[in-house]
Amino acid sequence: MTENKAGLEHNPNDREQGFFEHLEELRSRLFKSVLAILAGCVATGYFVNDIMNGILLKPAIDSKLELQNLRPFGQQFLYVKVVLVSGFITAFPIIMYQLWKFIEPGLYANEKRWAGRITVLTSLCFLLGVSFAYFVMIPGMLNFTVSFGSQNIKNVIDIGEYFSFIVMTILGSGLIFELPMITFVLATIGLVTAQMMRKFRRHAIIVILIIAAILTPSPDPINQLIFACPLYILYEISIIIARITRNSKSGRGSPTPQTTLPAA
């Protein structure tokens, strides 16, 4: 009698890992991720002035927003933060690859082939979210900040607060754009289905409009729709992904059932 288990198909030399082996594997993957972040920090640290002036401060310069430093060693700590965040973004594909390699032993053999593709797609979704925040959300928010309020009040923003705003907006948008990949994972383990997402589409639209209203400082409904449309498109893409994942699982079927070898 033979039995196929997840992660053991087509490879008789594989075996289930014990608890301490999982901990050792986790330690190894975390160590490699940290090394990737450090390497990213070293690489981006060499161009930190270009990143600071050409990327980080550019939205404020374009919006004619004045920035100032209010803390001793504020700029020194700011440069360190810029290097760390830039290193993390640079190393994000490697971090995701290490994550998928960690969960790979629990997958079926035909699911393991998706590790590389998932890494590319997850990184692409994250970078799309970062780009959307940087080129669309942040300029609109800063322009509204500069134009709103009394002319007798001068807007001079602390550089630390500006940096926190930029980082939170960019990383938050990057994570939101991971919705299709999160849906894929949840659909793979059976927690989400396309039918369920279609059933709650109206509720999702309301939530999306609320999120757009919160993220958009301008009361203009046009700007809110600009932010809401990508979120709704991501939701519809997630429904398609959930349906494809469900059909793939149905076509694959359950693991090979137990079979009894005929007597000699």
Describe the model:
With 264 residues, this protein is an all-alpha fold. The chain has 2 domains: 20-177, no CATH class; 178-252, no CATH class. The chain is 72% helix and 2% strand. The protein contains 11 helices and 2 strands; from the N terminus they run αααβαααβααααα. The chain has helices spanning 19-46, 48-56, 58-62, 74-103, 109-112, 114-147, 159-176, 179-188, 194-199, 201-215, 221-252, and strands at 66-68, 156-158. The chain has a two-stranded parallel ribbon. The radius of gyration is 24 Å and the shape is flat. It starts with 18 loop residues before the first helix and ends in a 12-residue tail after the last helix. The model is unreliable at 1-14 and 254-264 (pLDDT under 50).
List the helices and strands and how they pair.
Blueprint lengths: L18 H28 L1 H9 L1 H5 L3 E3 L5 H30 L5 H4 L1 H34 L8 E3 H18 L2 H10 L5 H6 L1 H15 L5 H32 L12
Parallel strand pairs: 1-2
Helix pairs in contact: 1-4, 4-6, 4-7, 6-7, 8-11, 10-11
Low-confidence stretches: 1-14, 254-264
Q: Give the biggest sheet.
A: 2 strands, parallel
Overall spatial form: flat
Number-wise, the strands total: 2
Mean pLDDT: 80
Q: Cα distance, first to last residue?
A: 14 Å
State the assembly state of the protein chains: single chain
* Radius of gyration, taken over Cα atoms and rounded to an integer in Å: 24 Å
* Helical content class: over 70%
Total DSSP helices? 11
The strand order across the widest sheet is 1-2
Sequence of secondary-structure elements: HHHEHHHEHHHHH
Q: What class would the helix/strand composition place it in?
A: mainly alpha
Number of domains: 2
Strand proportion:
under 5%
